[in-house]
Design brief:
The complex is a heterodimer of chains A (289) and B (537).
Chain A lengths: L2 E6 L6 H6 L3 E3 L2 E4 L2 E4 L6 H10 L5 E3 L3 H13 L4 E6 L7 H9 L6 E6 L4 H16 L4 H13 L1 E6 L4 H5 L17 E7 L2 E8 L2 H13 L4 E8 L3 H14 L4 E6 L2 H7 L4 E7 L12
Parallel strand pairs in A: 1-2, 1-6, 6-7, 11-12
Antiparallel strand pairs in A: 3-4, 3-5, 8-9, 8-13, 9-10, 11-13
Helix pairs in contact in A: 3-4, 5-6
Chain B lengths: L7 E2 L1 H24 L10 H16 L7 H15 L2 H17 L6 E2 H18 L8 H12 L6 H22 L1 H6 L4 H18 L16 H4 L6 E8 L8 H10 L3 E8 L2 E8 L2 H11 L1 E9 H6 L3 E3 L12 E7 L2 H9 L3 E4 L6 H11 L3 E5 L6 H10 L4 E3 L5 H10 L6 H12 L3 E7 L4 E3 L2 E3 L4 E5 L2 E5 L3 H12 L6 E6 L5 H14 L4 E6 L7 E5 L1
Parallel strand pairs in B: 8-9, 8-10, 10-11, 17-18
Antiparallel strand pairs in B: 1-2, 3-5, 3-6, 4-5, 7-9, 12-15, 12-19, 13-14, 15-16, 17-19
Helix pairs in contact in B: 1-2, 1-3, 1-9, 2-3, 2-4, 3-4, 4-5, 4-16, 5-6, 5-7, 6-7, 6-9, 7-9, 15-16, 17-18, 19-20
Classes of the chains: A alpha/beta (289), B alpha+beta (537).
Chain lengths: 289, 537
């Protein structure tokens, strides 16, 4: 049995982790008008945010085609894989998972199991790494899928955006609008719950919002693992990372930058963190290592 | 039995004495209001004490009802719920102590009366977490000391107490540097002395002298405290179809009808309208001309004025589910009330400072099992605390000392929060919020190295005199410079009810130039007394 791991470009994993764990990343598509760019391949985060400022019309996004997934699965089979765990962005935020399922239909000699992370960006990415680690430790495909699902259940996300406008345009605002009053400037503190964007708090300033994110993150102690990403605010990320480290000095901390596709929907002000709590919430979870 | 021969006070005699004291306090109210220690014209100590004493008398009920002890008890209860402002809350504690001193007594003889005055002083001291000398606490204690053990008759006790209280008031500037710098005696202390003098006059059968003159240079409060009564009319105008709603035209129509406190907010599809008019008819006519009306709410402000306060709730017609937590925020102006409502809070638009009863009523109207009170004024915190003591399971006070702090707290909580979470988030949020209040000095002052002439524009930073300038806007800008630290992100300026339009036009640009890189927001606050209130977060 040879098991390989597939995910999509919204996992925001740094290239070295992708290479180290031999993870296959299928890119989503960024569309500037008629110009279609492969997320993270044809356009980097750096160039994307520079271009976003200049473009008069906002870009849109598209999930990878079923054919793109089919090509990825078949290539892995040809390299000797017999089983695939394909782990993706929340099915409520993107139709990527549907594409992946369609792409897996009818491939001879390959078993593919799909997992909906109900998350995005590094919160998804670190579950993908967890899957690769479980496979390396000798877990079966079904065991690995169970471990990853447990990991996602124990992952709690918190994020800020400068404006809800990007989420609103993309139709992914959820209930976040409810807590933002119209007379005053308010920064919403958001989370992904059951795969959707939900508001969890609000603050007047970015500094207070970051403190409030950290206060809420601290409630999930004991923490096994933390992660943080930004769009285009490296100083805020640095501060967040220092504080996250202080919150759980022993925990693995992974830092990244969001991919252009996430940038389209969250805007250049996104700052996010996630923590994986040690408290088991699912009986199916076992460490596996 | 005539009053002059009284050896002991019955319930009826006490009631009469309190009534005379209240009338004497009313005659002295303006004089007490005028000597507020801070050089701003919102002095309402006399008003707060008077309203509190009236609440006590109202609760005491009709004549001949029971014993002196029971009567004092009923009064104390009324004062507790009707207390306004810090001075009112302290007065309510004095009345509570007074009642405790008469507990179980049929009538109050001289020793009992002296004991009750002593108990009044002790209870008031105990109620204040950090008692300051040179205030009404000191005056009450000195009066109780003079009454001593009540030798002589009832009238002797009251004479000694009242005389010593007046002397004690004159000593307050020696005890409290703030008073000395401002050149005034303590206003709350004067209020206590006035009440004791009133009691003495009643029991001695002296006629009430005419009102004393208001000190020179003091503000004519009658000119600024209230715009007059009439009807408060609110409704939502929806677009009928065709042309979008014209906000400016509607405002002009309301203005032409003679409306006050006009507030029109919303978008071209729906506008929320608020206006004060002597007759609600023209207000509705103007709305109907613009679109379809819904959520119509008309309050008789005269009745509201006579009642303790008005609790306004959002009238957007959405049948809201009862949230896990509620927030009641004191709003000094209609625009500020709108801002709080937009954040999901119940705005408590109090006439003056809200009483504990007003807090309780507003909290109950919120419908939630846990309600947080945002007093948003140093002088409303004690009344909020009093309300929280009445209903400890329901109420928690977040001690917000200013409008900006209140806004920060309201922002930090959302209706679905767990109560403990919300409390923690709100306490965290108010930390480090700085508040600037701009007004005109009520008199010439020199405090902390800043000097101001009478009537000169001044700015207070977190309650301390921080700047004086030739214009209100200059005072605001000078104070902003010192309030903005390296971590500041947002400057919010709440425009008062009498801000000249031409000054506001250039204000945003001036602030942005003075504090670059900060987000600046201007909000029609509609607050009285302070043309500008600003928060720096």
């Amino acid at each position: 049995m040879v098991i390989r791991i597939v995910t999509d470009s919204t996992c925001d994993l740094p290239p070295e982790l992708v290479a180290e764990h031999r993870i296959t990343v299928v890119p989503l598509i960024v569309l500037f008008g008629d110009e279609a760019l492969q997320d993270g391949i044809d356009i980097s985060a750096e160039r994307f945010f520079k271009r976003l400022v200049r473009e008069s019309k906002l870009p849109t996004t598209s999930q990878p085609s079923p054919a793109a997934f089919r090509a990825a699965y078949e290539r892995l089979r040809d390299e000797g894989a017999t089983e695939i765990l394909s782990v993706h962005i929340s099915g409520k935020l993107s139709r990527t998972l549907e594409s992946a399922r369609q792409g897996a239909e009818g491939i001879e000699g390959l078993r593919v199991v799909h997992v909906d992370s109900e998350l995005a960006t590094l919160a998804l990415g670190m579950g993908v790494v967890r899957a690769a680690e479980a496979v390396a430790a000798g877990c079966s495909l079904d065991e690995t899928a169970a471990i990853v699902r447990g990991h996602f259940q124990r992952t709690h996300t918190l994020f800020l955006v400068d404006t809800l406008e990007y989420l609103r345009r993309g139709g992914r605002i959820g209930r976040a609008q409810e807590i933002v009053g119209s007379l005053l400037k308010v920064k919403p503190i958001l989370s992904l719950q059951d795969g959707e964007v939900v508001p969890v708090g609000r603050a007047r300033t970015k500094q207070k919002a970051i403190e409030e994110m950290l206060r809420r993150a601290a409630e999930f102690r004991p923490i096994l693992e933390t992660m943080a990403v930004h769009a285009s605010t490296p100083d805020d990320l640095k501060y967040l990372v220092e504080r996250l480290h202080g919150l759980a000095p022993e925990a693995r901390l992974t830092v990244g930058r969001i991919t252009p596709v996430i940038g389209v929907h969250a805007g250049p002000g996104l700052l996010a963190c996630a923590v994986v709590t040690a408290e088991p919430t699912s009986s199916s979870y076992s460490s596996g290592t | 039995m005539t009053a002059t021969e009284a050896t002991a006070l019955t319930a009826a005699a006490l009631r009469d004495a309190f009534g005379v004291a209240a009338r004497w306090l009313e005659l002295n109210r303006d004089a007490i209001n005028a000597i507020n220690v801070y050089p701003v014209p919102d002095g309402d100590t006399g008003t707060n004490m008077l309203l509190t004493l009236r609440a006590a008398i109202d609760a005491g009920g009709g004549a001949d009802a029971g014993t002196a002890g029971a009567y004092a008890q009923a009064c104390a209860r009324g004062a507790l719920l009707g207390a306004r402002g810090n001075s009112g809350v302290i007065l309510s504690q004095m009345l509570r102590g007074f009642a405790a001193g008469l507990d179980g007594l049929e009538v109050a003889d001289a020793p009992a009366l002296a004991g009750a005055l002593r108990s009044a002083a002790d209870t008031a001291y105990a109620a204040v977490s950090a008692p300051v000398e040179g205030t009404m606490l000191t005056v009450m204690r000195d009066a109780a000391d003079a009454a001593a053990d009540g030798t002589g008759g009832v009238i002797d006790v009251l004479r000694s107490a009242a005389t010593e209280a007046l002397v004690s008031v004159d000593r307050t500037p020696q005890l409290l540097p703030r008073l000395r710098e401002a050149g005034v005696v303590d206003s709350g202390g004067l209020g206590v002395a006035v009440i004791l003098v009133g009691l003495r006059m009643a029991v001695a059968g002296e006629p009430l002298p005419p009102a004393p003159p208001t000190p020179r240079g003091a503000v004519d409060l009658a000119a600024v405290t209230h715009e007059g009564h009439g009807y408060c009319t609110e409704y939502v105008v929806s677009r009928r179809d065709g042309a979008p709603l014209d906000e400016a035209a509607l405002i002009a129509a309301l203005d032409a009808a003679g409306g006050d406190s006009i507030l029109v907010v919303g978008d071209p599809d729906a506008l929320h309208v608020h206006v004060h008019l002597d007759d609600p008819g023209p207000a509705l006519t103007a709305g109907v001309a613009a679109g379809t009306l819904s959520g119509i709410k008309i309050d008789n402000m005269q009745l509201q004025h006579e009642a303790w306060s008005a609790t306004h709730r959002a009238t957007d017609g959405v049948a809201a589910a009862i949230p896990a937590i509620g927030v009641v925020a004191v709003a000094a102006g209609l625009g500020i009330a709108e801002a709080f409502r937009a954040l999901g809070a119940v705005a408590l638009l109090a006439d003056g400072k809200p009483s504990p009863a007003a807090f309780l009523e507003a909290a109950r109207s919120a419908g939630s099992k846990r309600v947080f009170l945002l007093p948003n004024d140093v002088d409303a915190i004690m009344a909020a605390d009093q309300a929280a003591r009445e209903a400890p399971d329901l109420l928690t006070v977040i001690p917000t000392r200013s409008i900006p702090a209140g806004i920060a707290a309201a922002v930090a909580s959302t209706p679905d929060d767990a109560p403990d979470d919300a409390e923690q988030a709100m306490r965290l949020a108010i930390d480090g919020v700085r508040c600037i209040e701009v007004t005109r000095s009520a008199r010439a002052v020199q405090i902390g190295g800043v000097a101001a002439r009478q009537g000169q524009p001044i700015a207070l930073l977190d309650g301390r005199l921080a700047a004086s300038a030739e214009t209100l806007e200059d005072a605001l800008l000078v104070a902003l410079q010192s309030a903005v630290g390296p971590s500041a992100e947002v400057v919010s300026v709440y425009l008062g009810q009498d801000v000249p339009e031409e000054a506001v036009a250039s204000l945003r640009a001036r602030i942005e130039a003075a504090v670059p890189a900060l987000t600046v927001e201007l909000i029609e606050g509609g607050q009285p007394y302070y043309p500008y209130v600003a928060g720096v977060e």
